[in-house]
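Handoff note, outgoing to incoming analyst
You'll be picking up this chain. Sequence as last confirmed:
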Amino acid sequence: MRTSQLDETQRADSAIAQLLEDVQELEQRVDTLEHTLEQKDDRIDELECQIEIRGEDNAMENLWIRNLPVGKMLRNRKQVVKQLEGRITNIERGEVDPGEVIANADTDVDPSDLLPLHNAYLSVQNLHPSEHNLSENQEIAARLFPYLGQYAHSNSRKLVLPSTKIKDILEREIATPKLSRRLDVKNPNTNTIRRVMKFVGEFGSEIMEFDDSAKTNRLVIDRGAWVEYTQEVTESIESTDYGTVNTENETVSARKKRDEAEDRAAQEPDKQSSPSDYGVVITDQETTVISN
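Most recent structure output, in case you need it:
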């Protein structure tokens, strides 16, 4: 009798010990899950801070992510795609500056990986002035982006644009009648040019720098970093499969038009219009970025 009672007691103790062990394991799992949940909550809070609706309703065009008007950009996507198709066709025929194509390209690159100056350019191109958060001088700086490589001259491993070249870009490329009515781009003030160049240096991240140490204010671009950046954007353009195929006659016409464009460029010695100066070369059917 006593032996039977002893066996039952031992079995009960063993069962209790097993239950306690199971409870401890469950408590550890609960602690782990609670920690994981806290991490997810923190991540959600972080993402919610980056995603916001700016407007009275939840319309897609009011969506902003990381201070970028993503909703309004998506609203204009269809028009941008059509423009890009036309631009790529024209660049194959040698009719447009490849720097402008890179600046306007709708690519697979994360906006956070683009230069702030590039993002600012996309904003001013796609949004009404009342819809972006840029000052007038910041907008002018952003509009310089497609032309910096085209007008720069090579100096060792740098691309350099003195203030005189910035003035040329403003007057030749940006001073349309519409923009001239609200921006100081036609016969721009010297102080405007200086402020704009400083903004380019700030928005150009580590690739571009505003240098006022010399007698003439200038922008200095790291040529290697610029080539690498344009290469990444160009590869992304190609991966979006927006390309077209030219017939043999179109290819011959492209060569002729390209040669004519080069002849015209040769007659403007003060304007560095050779795309190879900033790492982009036009061939018959594609845009290639060089790295030397």
